[in-house]
Amino acid sequence: MGAETFDNFVKRSDGIDTAAKAFNHAVEVAQHRHGHGGYTGTLAEKDSFEMLQDEPVDRKIANLLIQNDTEDYDNGKFQDKCGPAGCIAIDDPKHGKGWVFFGWASC
């Protein structure tokens, strides 16, 4: 049994206006695409998330934060395949506003 990294962006919309709603939506989409049986290596394996920072950043900064966390095997906060997903608020001219969820998940 191993682990895979994932990151999922959820755009803010009328029905998705909080990180919690975005997380629930992203988990449902991952379960629909990859199944409910477990060990998918996707966000479908997560049951919670933690915000990485307080202020929204653009997607390029978010990608660097994600890369730093998922590649730093000694200090990455969201590398526990059984722990919470990381979440970064996004405010980007190209991608819009939303949230990106990331981390490691069992596969």
Any descriptors?
4-stranded mixed beta sheet; 107 residues; alpha+beta; 2 helices; 27% helix
- Mean pLDDT rating: 91
Distance between the termini: 6 Å
Biggest beta sheet attributes: 4 strands, mixed
Q: Tell me what portion of residues adopts beta-strand conformation.
A: 25-35%
Q: Please bin the fraction of helical residues.
A: 25-40%
Query: Count of DSSP helices?
Result: 2
Number of strands: 4
Gross morphology:
globular
Order of helices and strands: EHEHEE
Strand order of the largest sheet: 1-4-3-2
Would you identify the regions where 5 or more consecutive residues have pLDDT less than 50? none
Structural class: alpha+beta
Structural domain count? 1
Q: Over all CA atoms, what is the radius of gyration?
A: 13 Å
Structural commentary:
The protein is α+β, with helices and mostly antiparallel strands and 107 residues long. It has one domain. Helices cover 27% and strands 29% of the residues. The protein is built from 2 helices and 4 strands, in the order βαβαββ. It has helices spanning 19-34, 59-71, and strands spanning 3-11, 49-51, 85-92, 96-106. It has a 4-stranded mixed beta sheet, with helices on both faces. Helix 2 links the parallel strand 2 and strand 3. The radius of gyration is 13 Å and the shape is globular.
